[in-house]
Design a protein that fits this description.
It catalyses: thymidine + phosphate = 2-deoxy-alpha-D-ribose 1-phosphate + thymine. One of its GO terms (molecular function) is thymidine phosphorylase activity. Keywords: Glycosyltransferase, Transferase. The chain contains 18 helices and 18 strands. The protein is of the alpha/beta class. The protein folds into four domains: 86 residues, Beta Barrel (Barwin-like endoglucanases), CATH 2.40.40; 60 residues, Transferase, Pyrimidine Nucleoside Phosphorylase, Chain C (Transferase, Pyrimidine Nucleoside Phosphorylase, Chain A, domain 3, Up-down Bundle); 225 residues, Pyrimidine Nucleoside Phosphorylase, Chain A, domain 2, CATH 3.40.1030.10; 85 residues, Alpha-Beta Complex (Aldehyde Oxidoreductase, domain 3), CATH 3.90.1170.30. A hairpin with a 2-residue loop joins strand 3 and strand 4. The longest helix is centred in the middle third of the chain and has 17 residues. It starts with a strand and ends in a 12-residue tail after the last strand. The relative contact order is 0.10. The mean pLDDT is 93.
Length: 511
């Protein structure tokens, strides 16, 4: 081994969308090159290269002086055998940072600027600090409509695109913020049973108690390759899969990994994220659900209308047929919050169980009906009745069963966790509000979504009368520590407000 080469060592650390390298402080290359911790380095071997953030190690049991440690992400990207020889050099700063600095100073960026920025991010030339600078510079209302279009198109072009070879490929997306709002798992089988193509690739939960992929995973396999997706969709006209196995708008995933810890969620970045992913997934017709409520992500009607205009402007320029539904986001949808409880609600609706949550059924039928009206053979206003007939007849349940078999059926157990705490009303009254954010937080503290059986089961919804001592909801958990955290939060603020009928905030929403 020459003095300027190092042996690769795989370090079992998941650094999630960031390449990280580890050098021993006593390493000759480290001393000779004058590397600094958190600087960017270029790692090369036999034509394979990867950029990584450098961490300096003082423990030789982790990395010895003649070794270069690589995180799981970096090791996978470099794609060489452990023990291979590599060289390490200073990385050239990304040229597109000049555009980020111009944006920080208030200048307007063009399409080439956004192309260069997204390309450098995908090529891992940006550190998380540099990505944070870009997100802050373009956050809030710092992008005009054209810049938002440029960013969306650049994100779309950062990865692969799926082609279903059909003129009408339907999809739906909710902007989030409403616990239990698992409508996709009802919309997809209804629409697919109608015969329309609806390949639904969904994310896992990041800040919510469950994502569609987390819940569907209780019923069927969701980690499917693009080849498997094409086979399943070709046969069943739909799927409910995790989107992480396909390289669709990968820059979006990388930006999200920085956005979430910082709590950055601007409207412009949301629009670019959603539309780039949907277009990359091959969608031609898209329905966007924007829930509005006092504790939803969008809290005022004027904000929802402005967001709708942004979606429509960018969608029109990217040639996707896009419609927006502004829906009631005053409280959670359904009863269950958390994977197993949400899966239970979904199966109750599909089976036309009299105990099925009515609001989840109705909202899903409204969304499915609007998507069915994308079909040129369906007259406007007929979609809801068609969706209802498909659900009532059992065809939606049969389609869901077919999707589960095609994706790989799991042994289904929809019983919640063994630890249960009942939260009761401390006075008589009527439920006048339920805090979406608080209920989601309690469910997450209970262990959802990582612990599939954890969550919150609502027994009372807005408008329901209660007596002192009545159970408002139950908290379920699998581990005592999670259980205590959730109990403590519920005891300090249970998320419910009781009052009288006239105090209920009336919905301004009409489907």
């Amino acid at each position: 081994m020459s003095n300027d080469t190092l042996q690769v060592r795989r370090i079992g650390i998941d650094t999630y969308h960031e390449n990280v390298a580890y050098l021993n402080r006593e390493c000759g290359v480290y001393r000779a090159e004058g590397f600094q911790a958190l600087s960017k380095v270029l790692i090369s071997t036999n034509g394979s290269k990867v950029l990584a953030v450098l961490n300096v190690v003082d423990d030789s049991s982790i990395v010895q002086p003649g070794e270069l440690g690589l995180s799981e992400q970096a090791f996978s990207r470099l794609s060489v055998a452990e023990g291979s020889l590599v060289t390490v050099n200073h990385a050239e700063p990304p040229k597109s940072m000049d555009a980020v600095r111009r944006k920080i100073n208030g200048e307007r960026l063009d399409q080439d600027d956004f192309n260069n920025i997204t390309n450098d991010i995908v090529e891992t030339r940006y550190s998380k600090m540099e990505m944070a600078a870009f997100l802050v510079a373009t956050g809030q209302n710092n992008l005009d409509r054209d810049e938002l279009f440029f960013l969306t198109r650049a994100m779309l072009q950062s990865g692969d695109r799926m082609n279903w070879h059909e003129a009408l490929v339907a999809d739906k997306h909710c902007i989030g913020g409403i616990p239990g709002n698992r409508t996709s798992m009802l919309v997809v089988p209804i629409v697919a049973a109608h015969g329309m193509l609806i390949p639904k690739t969904s994310s896992r939960a990041i800040t919510s108690p469950a994502g569609t992929a987390d819940t569907m995973e209780l019923l069927a396999e969701v980690n499917l390759t693009p080849e498997q997706l094409h086979e399943i969709v070709g046969k069943e006209r739909g799927c409910l899969a995790w989107g992480g196995t396909a390289k669709l708008a990968p820059v979006d995933d990388m930006l999200i990994s920085v956005e979430r810890p910082l709590g950055i969620d601007s409207q412009g970045q949301m629009v670019a994220s959603i539309l780039s992913k949907k277009l990359a997934a091959g969608s031609t017709h898209l329905l966007i659900d924007i829930p509005v409520g006092p504790t939803a992500k969008v809290r005022h009607m004027n904000q929802a209308l402005a967001l709708r205009k942004l979606f429509e402007f960018v969608g029109d320029r990217l040639n996707i047929h896009l419609e927006v539904m502004i829906t009631d986001g005053r409280q959670p949808i359904g009863r269950g919050i958390g994977p197993v409880l949400e899966a239970r609600d979904i199966m109750q609706v599909l089976k036309n169980d009299p105990d099925a949550p009515f609001d989840l059924r109705q909202k899903s039928l409204q969304l499915a009906g609007r998507i069915i009206e994308f079909d040129p053979d369906v007259r406007g206003g007929q979609g809801y009745a068609i969706a209802r007939d498909i659900l009532d007849s059992g065809r939606a349940l049969a389609k869901m069963d077919a999707l589960i078999r095609a994706q790989g059926a799991k042994v289904i157990d929809l019983h919640p966790g063994n630890l249960c705490h009942e939260v009761v009303a401390d006075c008589d009254g009527v439920v006048i509000s339920i805090d979406n954010f608080q209920m989601a937080t309690i469910a997450r503290l209970a262990g959802a979504p990582m612990m599939k059986k954890a969550g919150v089961d609502l027994l009372k919804k807005m408008g329901d009368p209660v007596k002192k001592g009545d159970v408002l909801y139950r908290i379920y958990a699998e581990f005592p520590a999670d259980f205590k955290f959730a109990q403590d939060l519920a005891n300090s603020n249970n998320g419910y407000t009781l009052g009288s009928d006239e105090q209920i905030i009336k919905s301004l929403i009409a489907f």
